[in-house]
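User: Predict the complex.
Assistant: Input components as received:
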Amino acid sequence: KQEVTQIPAALSVPEGENLVLNCSFTDSAIYNLQWFRQDPGKGLTSLLLIQSSQREQTSGRLNASLDKSSGRSTLYIAASQPGDSATYLCAVEGSGYALNFGKGTSLLVTP
Amino acid sequence: SAVISQKPSRDICQRGTSLTIQCQVDSQVTMMFWYRQQPGQSLTLIATANQGSEATYESGFVIDKFPISRPNLTFSTLTVSNMSPEDSSIYLCSVGGAPGANVLTFGAGSRLTVL
């Protein structure tokens, strides 16, 4: 059974810092890995999708990497802003369409 | 990407009652999924809602407790039956295309509190 772990569980940083969120998974047989952002009352927003054949994806200040063989992904956020405060979820898609989610990293960026 | 509307956004329910959550999509989609997020936990897939046939349930979830309907390609409902406080969760509807190919879109979720 796929297990997805996210570290740290919570993170507080001052505005402007660069930060890294970590995700690990136990079964490397995945189709893709996605990073989501969850805001209270607003559901989940997909940030980046990395196919199993890719090593990284970038969108604005966000960069996600994938090392499938070691079962790891990182989400790098550059020049963090208070608006980045949210819970960040990592999810991997394996066989049968299901997404397996980590518990998330709760990020607080202080002005 | 598809826009998903979920109703209700939140509700407080009494033990032993049932509640139906609706998920409406603004375009036809192949795949619709229902997830549960218990307090402090990750999202867990309940079932895949199949159009015109019974839903496919994940291990630990059964049709009697979580009956699902999918009458067409834009709408689905999830019922949480005979609720107990342990059912207090956020329930999310999600839609996507072919497995491994498309980004999944999620609704805002329905936060249920069972007293």
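Chain A has no helices and eleven strands.
Let me know if you want any component modeled separately.
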